Amino acid sequence: MNEDQAVSALGALAHTQRLRVFRALVVAGSEGLTPSVLADQLGVARNSLSFHLKELAHAGLVTIEQQGRNLIYRADFAQMNSLLGYMTEHCCQGGVCEVTESPFTCASC
């Protein structure tokens, strides 16, 4: 991930409704959700939700799959992990965290 992609992703998440939508898609996992289910779960107007999903998709944080007449939205976990990796790439001098042995969580920073 480069700096421009990180700014785009972070910008897309820097809105309360989009952050809620993204988190709901993360919880849904690989099954994803349709916009109508998302709208019902989050109590968001469908036209507003459409705008937010478009922004998240443009930032590469969600994928869209057509299944029959429905669109299925899913969190793009690879892109999310790429963003986390970009944000933490210099943690513990850019290596694996000595405390947690994970490149994404560092208790010593």
UniProtKB/TrEMBL annotation:
Record protein name field: Transcriptional regulator
Gene3D superfamilies: Winged helix-like DNA-binding domain superfamily/Winged helix DNA-binding domain
SMART domains, sorted: HTH_ARSR (SM00418)
Record's keyword terms, sorted: DNA-binding, Transcription, Transcription regulation
InterPro entries: ArsR-like_HTH, HTH_ArsR_DNA-bd_dom, Metal_resp_trans_reg, WH-like_DNA-bd_sf, WH_DNA-bd_sf
Pfam family, one: HTH_20
Keyword Nucleus recorded: no
GO molecular function, one term: DNA binding
Domain HTH arsR-type: 1-95
Keyword Repressor annotated: no
SUPFAM superfamilies named in the record: Winged helix' DNA-binding domain
